[in-house]
Every structure is written in structure tokens, then in C-alpha cells.
Design goal:
single chain; alpha+beta; Alpha-D-Glucose-1,6-Bisphosphate, Chain A, domain 4; seven-stranded antiparallel β-sheet; about 40% strand; ASHA1/2-like_C; Activator of Hsp90 ATPase homologue 1/2-like C-terminal domain-containing protein; START-like_dom_sf
């Protein structure tokens, strides 16, 4: 096991304000909707089997979906929740990874032109996952696009 780290990074511009983006990411009802939309965008057939979010610093989240007859699990703990600028949480998909820090930091800033917001998501993980870096970035971008789709549908 290596202690070296790598970082996935994606940036996306939203027409919505930082407050609306933050709320969409942290409201459990909205988060479930964009998670379902992300699955469709990623070509996953679902369904979401379990979805839980305790949105507070120290609170946890868990969701799972079915993939090829097996339950794919995703979970973590919220470390930082600063509305509307920062969300930070751990991220795990396998019990064997829990002793390796996998950290997701989401920075939400007003767009430089004053229209909407810019979100930059960083995912720090062990370097042993380097072959999955591009796929990880693609997955996070699809999640951001699903958040955007939810916000656009809300108007």
C-alpha cells in the first residue's frame, strides 16, 4: 500500500448561484434526484437501493445501487460544510479502503462575471488508483452535470 496521493480535479460553471448549488448538493431529497440522474447519464440502470444523508459536520452519507446484480456502495463522512462555499467529505466504495484517506473537496465560488457560480471538485486518493484517475474525473463531471440538470429543471 502506498501513501503517495493523486488528485482528480473537475471544474464546472453553473448558471445557478452558489447558494442554490450548495443546497442542491446537500439537501437529501435533491441529492437523491441528481444521483438518480447521474446514474442515467453514466449508463447505469439502477435502481438506488439505499440512500441516507445526515448533513452535518461529522454526519455520514450512504447510497447504493444495483450493477450487474450486485450492490455498488458509496459512503463517507461530512468533514466541512460551509454554506455556500465548501463541502468536504470522505469517499469510499469498498470496506478495504476505509484505512486509506479518500477526500473530496468541493469549492463553490461566484462566477467571475457575476453570473452563476463555478464549482471545482478535488478528489484526493492513493496513487495506486492512478489508472482510474480519468474515469474518476469523468464520473465526478457527470455528477456535476446531474446537479446542473436538477437546478435547470427547478428554474
Amino acid at each position: 500500500m502506498t501513501s503517495e496521493k493523486i488528485e482528480a480535479k473537475v471544474t464546472h460553471h453553473f448558471r445557478a448561484s452558489p447558494e442554490r448549488v450548495y443546497d442542491a448538493m446537500t439537501d437529501p431529497e435533491k441529492a437523491r434526484l441528481w444521483q438518480e440522474a447521474w446514474m442515467v447519464q453514466a449508463g447505469l440502470k439502477g435502481p438506488i437501493v439505499r440512500f441516507e444523508m445526515d448533513v452535518r459536520e461529522g454526519g455520514s452519507f450512504f447510497y447504493s445501487d444495483m450493477r450487474d446484480g450486485e450492490e455498488a456502495k458509496h459512503w463517507g463522512t461530512f468533514l466541512v460544510l460551509h454554506r455556500p462555499t465548501k463541502i468536504q467529505h470522505t469517499w469510499f466504495v469498498d470496506e478495504s479502503e476505509e484505512d486509506q484517506l479518500s477526500l473530496v473537496t468541493i469549492i463553490i465560488e461566484p462566477a467571475p462575471d457575476g453570473q452563476g457560480s463555478t464549482v471545482t471538485l478535488y478528489h484526493e486518493m492513493n496513487a495506486e488508483w492512478e489508472e482510474y484517475l480519468e474515469r474518476t474525473e469523468q464520473g465526478w463531471m457527470k455528477m456535476l452535470l446531474a446537479v446542473e440538470g436538477l437546478l435547470e429543471a427547478e428554474g
